Automatic annotation (TrEMBL):
Pfam families: CTLH. This is CTLH domain-containing protein. InterPro entries: CTLH/CRA, CTLH_C, Ubq-SigPath_Reg. Residues 362-402, 625-651 are annotated as: Disordered. It comes from Dorcoceras hygrometricum. Residues 362-375, 625-636 have a biased composition (Polar residues). Residues 47-99, 446-503 form the CTLH domain.
């Protein structure tokens, strides 16, 4: 799993879209028409408000929001009946005489009239819920214990969320949907294969076990023509539904397979706080976002409260409300809160420079094999070349702003802890402030060093990269010879393109040859490299060099040497994409939904460094050089069918698709088991079914 290639540039694009859609970053780009996912943010926010209102028992607020934003849904008496019934229970739960009178009024004016035509059994349900008048809410043996259960709040809030998401087209960003899908497949794959997941600690926290109830199709939709069995089975197996569940889902979506699929994914729930942490960690690591600078003079002071200077919610990960009976909070805890923030944000403005996209195709302008104009770095800092502002598509890093929906609560509880801590002594706070600021500065330096090297490598500036890494750690390339080989390949090919064959051969004899002599797996890539000498100057192009891939491999390796671990999101993507590949190999079919979720882009492998002839050897050698192999999206090869490579179809194994579906349907078997049975009986579905029932 650790060596599976992932297109990190495609993931960057997905995460930028996610962060913009969820308004997690302050975007400096000029205003334009909002993307569909971004324009649906207010609907998603409204749905979350309704969910929170219902889960807290405030049914009236939820109904008011529906009346204001989605009044059509209140015309569905099935939903309205459930809401009014829950309102009746919540009024009784309060226990006062006034609320009991309000409950009786609710029955007379709302619940009883709605029960007449909500659904066939609604009136029986109405009479049943009246028993709540005489049975106590704490009586677990009463016939209405289920009605009193607070679980009902979550059931109806989840149902409304499912309906509203589809009704308002308020789907989560593609990244969220893709992550749900990949993690669910990963969990299922590990369970069925009996293997332990290397990321179980992350996936268990990230993807919640419970799902929202499915949206119920209206009876009028029963007249929809029969659905294609291929669609039914594809949906059922993609999101773990029964066949009838898949049919109902398609019926609710009026036969639209992709919408039904998104509806089912939307029922799965991610822990938003964990997701935001993972995304921020990755974006900081990749240089996509920046944090608010924190300096000793303006951000942290011992004599005043620090909360106003910190971002809202910045301490919420480790802070907890301290009661009067538990005053054990100390300065170490506050430092831990700040350290958590440091770990998530990392980069400050100590050596901040404007960042702009690399362009691997424009090596005439960007590549350099000379050291002219390059400043010598000192022992701890990498000094980047001067850059003019505004170059490239991303001239500045974006600022992470986080979610502000529960801002007041987070600020309040953090203020409480900091005030308690402050009362324990200002002297210790002064010492802790110094420690925190020093840690911030050191971590900022490390991130800037790594990002600077990554950016130089992405522009093909090999000599500068090698020089700066050697200044940082003279033993680095001794332990990572493959990375040096790949860098020197870039330098060699650039010189060949420029017609300087003498210098190119000097690079080959001084570096490529000795490295290949020590590692025989590099001999074939070396031969392919030397073959470029035979090409005409115009043909010796290096436009397909995967400089971004090489730059990311360097980033990971150099970062680890400096004590910066790769983001946890990288681990999740590698493991889940590996499981996705293996699962569909077992199913012997292609994933119909990976194009919709950009999964095919995350897997897309561009041309190798030296062309198709050396693809295998180059890929193999990459896996030996570092624990991360990345492929650039700058020159991707799109598969003709839009799906991942190495997947096979039913025609490849000599089975008819209809026969496979028939066996799956009649015997309720997974696809792989159905195929194995058909292979045994020459692909005859009727024979398989007869033998099973014989």
């Amino acid at each position: 799993m650790d060596t599976i290639p992932v297109n990190w540039e495609a993931l960057d694009a997905l995460l930028i879209d996610f962060a913009k859609s969820e308004q997690l970053i302050e975007d400096s780009s000029p205003p334009s028409s909002p993307a569909p996912s971004s324009s649906s943010y207010r609907w998603r926010f409204m749905i979350r408000q309704i969910r929170l209102s219902l889960e807290s028992g405030d049914v009236d607020s939820a109904i008011d929001l529906l009346q204001s934003h989605a009044p059509d849904l209140l015309n569905d008496h099935r939903l309205l009946f459930r809401l009014q019934k829950q309102k009746f229970i919540e009024l009784l739960r309060r226990g006062t005489d006034e609320d009991r009178d309000s409950a009786i009024k609710c029955i007379r004016t709302s619940l009883a009239p709605c029960a007449l035509d909500a659904y066939p059994e609604a009136y029986e349900d109405f009479k049943h819920v009246l028993l709540a008048f005489i049975y106590d809410k704490d009586d677990q043996t009463s016939p209405v214990a289920d009605e009193w259960s607070k679980k009902r709040r979550f059931d109806i809030s989840g149902l409304l969320s499912s309906v509203l998401t589809s009704h308002l087209n308020a789907y989560d960003p593609i990244f969220s949907l893709a992550l749900k899908y990949l993690i669910s497949i990963h969990k299922g794959f590990c369970l069925r294969q009996g293997i332990s997941s290397p990321i179980s600690d992350l996936t268990e926290r990230l993807l919640l076990e419970e799902r929202d109830p499915p949206a119920i199709p209206q009876e009028s939709l029963n007249e929809v023509p029969p659905f294609d069995e291929v669609d039914i089975q594809a949906l059922a197996h993609a999101v773990e539904l029964t066949r009838q569940g898949a049919v109902d889902s398609l019926r609710f979506a009026k036969g639209d397979l992709q919408q039904a699929f998104k509806n089912e994914l939307s029922r799965m729930r991610l822990d938003v706080s964990v997701l935001d942490e993972l995304v921020q960690e990755y974006c900081v690591y990749r240089g996509i976002v920046d944090s608010v600078p924190m300096t000793a003079g303006t951000q942290i002071s011992s004599g005043t409260s620090t909360v106003d200077q910190l971002e809202p919610g910045c301490l919420s990960q480790n802070c907890s409300v301290v009661s009067g009976s538990d005053m054990s909070l100390n300065n170490t805890h506050v430092e831990g809160c700040l350290e958590t923030r440091i770990d998530m944000v990392g980069m400050q403005n100590a050596y901040m420079e404007e960042r702009y996209c690399s362009n691997s195709n424009n090596l005439n302008k960007d590549c350099s094999t000379s050291t002219s104009g390059t400043r010598q770095p000192d022992e701890h800092k990498v000094v980047l070349r001067n850059r003019s502002p505004g170059n490239g598509e991303r001239s500045k890093r974006r600022r992470w702003r986080g979610r502000n929906e529960n801002q007041e609560f987070n600020i309040g509880r953090c203020k409480h802890e900091l005030n308690v801590t402050k009362s324990l002594g200002d002297t210790n706070m002064d010492l802790n402030t110094s420690v925190v600021v020093d840690t911030l500065s050191k971590r900022a330096d490390k991130y800037e060093i790594v990002l600077g090297i990554k950016e130089l490598a992405s522009k093909g500036m090999v000599v500068e990269v090698v020089e700066q890494i050697n200044n940082l750690d003279p033993e680095f390339f001794t332990e990572h010879p493959l990375l040096l080989f790949q860098l020197k390949q870039v330098e060699f090919l650039k010189l060949v393109r420029d017609g300087d064959h003498h210098s190119a051969l000097k690079v080959a004899s001084s570096h490529l040859g000795p490295l290949a002599a020590k590692d025989l797996s590099l001999l074939k890539p070396l031969k392919e490299t030397l073959l470029t000498l035979l090409k005409l100057k115009e043909e010796a192009t290096v436009e397909n060099l995967h400089l971004d891939a090489l730059a990311t491999s360097l980033q990971v390796a150099v970062g680890r040497r400096l004590g910066i671990e790769e983001p946890q999101l990288m681990k999740i993507l590698r493991a889940t994409l590996h499981s996705h590949n293996e699962w569909f190999k077992l199913q012997m079919c292609k994933d119909q939904f990976e194009g919709l979720l950009w999964i095919h882009s995350l897997k897309e492998l561009g041309s190798p460094l030296l062309g198709d002839a050396s693809c295998k050897s180059y890929s193999n050698s990459c896996t030996q050089g570092s624990s991360q192999v990345t492929i650039s999206s700058g020159s991707t090869r799109t598969h003709e069918d839009g799906n991942s490579p190495n997947q096979i179809s039913s025609t490849d194994i000599g089975c008819d698709e209809n026969a496979i579906l028939k066996v799956m349907e009649f015997l309720a078997l997974p696809r792989a088991d159905a195929i194995h049975l058909l292979v045994q009986y020459n692909g005859n579905a009727e024979t398989v079914i007869q033998q099973i029932f014989a």
